[in-house]
Amino acid sequence: QLQLVESGGGLVHPGGSLTLSCTTSGRSFDDYTIAWFRRAPGKDREGVSGIDTSGRSTYYADFVEGRFTIARDSSKNTVYLHMNSLKPEDTAVYYCTIGQIYWGQGIQVTVSS
């Protein structure tokens, strides 16, 4: 059974940076495309970014505007979401997922002065 665990969230000032990690266990990490979603208070869940099995093909939502970078490290079974120039509207619970079937527990990111 696949398990995903997010880490690295927290409170950051506007303009600051955070790196989220999504570590998987249970099956071969390299077999799966992995994506990040988020759910802000009072809003629907939305896709943020994704990365294919090779790590060479990535996706970013329009609102990212070049501020985030997704990467994967097979040696650590981990996908990272490096977030820069954070805005208050980036405040949300962030989730990693495989196929929108397996989900992590989510991690809070709060951008506030």
Give an account of the 3D structure:
- The chain has 113 residues and is an all-beta fold.
- Helix content is 0%, strand content 50%.
- It contains no helices and eleven strands.
- It has strands at 3-7, 10-12, 18-25, 34-39, 46-51, 58-60, 68-73, 78-83, 92-98, 102-103, 107-111.
- Strands 2, 4, 5, 6, 9, 10 and 11 form a seven-stranded mixed sheet that branches. It has a four-stranded antiparallel sheet with strand order 1-3-8-7, with no helix packed on it.
- The protein is globular.
- It starts with a strand and ends with a strand.
Index terms:
four-stranded antiparallel β-sheet, 11 strands, 0% helix
Itemize the secondary structure elements and their pairings.
Elements: E1 3-7, E2 10-12, E3 18-25, E4 34-39, E5 46-51, E6 58-60, E7 68-73, E8 78-83, E9 92-98, E10 102-103, E11 107-111
Parallel strand pairs: 2-11
Antiparallel strand pairs: 1-3, 3-8, 4-5, 4-9, 5-6, 7-8, 9-10, 9-11
Give a quick precis of the structure.
The chain has 113 residues and is mostly beta strands. It has strands at 3-7, 10-12, 18-25, 34-39, 46-51, 58-60, 68-73, 78-83, 92-98, 102-103, 107-111.
Classification by helices and strands: mainly beta
* Distance linking N and C termini: 40 Å
Element-by-element helix/strand order: EEEEEEEEEEE
Number of helices: 0
Overall 3D shape: globular
- Percent helix among the residues? under 10%
**Over the alpha carbons, how many angstroms does the gyration radius reach?**
13 Å
Q: Beta fraction of the residues? A: over 45%
The overall strand count is 11
